[in-house]
Amino acid sequence: MTDPGLYRHLDEMVPWNDRLQVLEVIGIVDEAPEVKTFTFRSDAQTWFRYKPGQFITLELPLDDGPIMRTYTLSSSPSRPFSIAVTVKAQPGSVGTRWMFDNLGIGARLKAFGPGGDFTHHNHPAAKYLFISAGSGITPMMSMLRWLNDCAPGTDVSFVNCARRPEEIIFRKELELLGSRMPGLSLSFLIEERSSRESWFGHMGRIDAVRLPLLSPDFREREVFCCGPEPFMRAVREMLQSTGFDMAFYHQESFGVPPVEPVPAPFPELPANADADAAPAAAAVPVRFSLSDVEGECLPGQTVLQAARASGVRISAACEFGLCGTCKVRKLSGEVEMNHNGGILDDEIAEGFILACCSKPLCDLEIES
Ligand SMILES: Cc1cc2nc3c(=O)[nH]c(=O)nc-3n(C[C@H](O)[C@H](O)[C@H](O)COP(=O)(O)OP(=O)(O)OC[C@H]3O[C@@H](n4cnc5c(N)ncnc54)[C@H](O)[C@@H]3O)c2cc1C
């Protein structure tokens, strides 16, 4: 462990290895009701290398066994000695709630990443429009912090939506940035008034009437949107209704995007059924080489589901092909993989697949 007070120059440190890190909590801040920022440093002497807007996946050591959760880095890579995630515990939350209840200063966690391509760095533009709601503000905050540090004159129109005034995450910092970045135009849109705080700003939901008021030249901007799926759908539909060219629209999903229903992994057989009567002809043998387990994938199952059914553990977090946590090497066979950007073309060429969104087309051997 490094001395907390010891300053090291960047060139005296090695960059973050992009596969696995152990992080140590160095700061915890209450941002809004049920929202906290956890700041980490590396327990090795490394600096953090990522693009603003990218995410990491944390392994949370629950008593029942570890679970994985993916969080955007709300920090900026322009300050590379620490990273931060800003997390919101929804009702019924298991993983985030565990963090709230168990992560204190000095706690250590395994982390994987960074990953993701939701970053303005991949889409250089003269003008940006950031639209976010709830915890979807995190990638925008990372990008805005980076712009403030490295390109403070950038033209950014930022529309942030929240249910109530007190639920606006990073409000004070955003207002400060608004006073320091000449090109930043900041708008908050609130759904409900609150007894806790008076509100004299914009109210309502974002729509084709309000957007031109908040960002009059939105058609000229590269748009980044993040928030709950119904919110992003509304933004997409609203932009499309105005004739906006959707090639300039980018979004990040924190949850599973709407997909066709997947058949139940293992349909229960009647008690007296002959196991041989199961559709064996359609099941595909899958060998997990490191575990030395012969499994099978039933029709409609993913490699991840087949692994779980065979007692083989493959780490997974988002389970919709975005976070990349379940990346495994395919030693033989072919799969149909429908990912959401969690794997690079180079990795696919090297034989890697994402187990959560790959279905076998023939016998498979997986290095796991
Ligand atoms: C790329 C990416 C970036 C993200 N960035 C952020 C971020 O910056 N900040 C942030 O807060 N989140 C972020 N998320 C979301 C985060 O990864 C978690 O999905 C989210 O926080 C919920 O996890 P949880 O442990 O809090 O809740 P979970 O325990 O996963 O539960 C979520 C909800 O599902 C319900 N639920 C859980 N299990 C079941 C079940 N078996 N059956 C029925 N319902 C169930 C719970 O009741 C709860 O309402 C991101 C996700 C992705 C993919």
TrEMBL record:
Entries under Pfam families matching the protein: FAD_binding_6, Fer2, NAD_binding_1
Coiled coil: none
Keywords assigned: 2Fe-2S, FAD, Flavoprotein, Iron, Iron-sulfur, Metal-binding, Oxidoreductase
Domain FAD-binding FR-type: residue ranges: 18-121
InterPro entries, per database record: 2Fe-2S_ferredoxin-like_sf, 2Fe-2S_ferredoxin-type, 2Fe2S_fd_BS, Beta-grasp_dom_sf, Cbr1-like_FAD-bd_dom, FAD-bd_FR_type, FNR_nucleotide-bd, MRET
Domain 2Fe-2S ferredoxin-type: 284-368
Entry-linked PANTHER family: NADH OXIDOREDUCTASE HCR
Entry similarity comment: In the N-terminal section; belongs to the FAD-binding oxidoreductase type 6 family.
Protein name per its UniProtKB record: Ferredoxin-NADP reductase
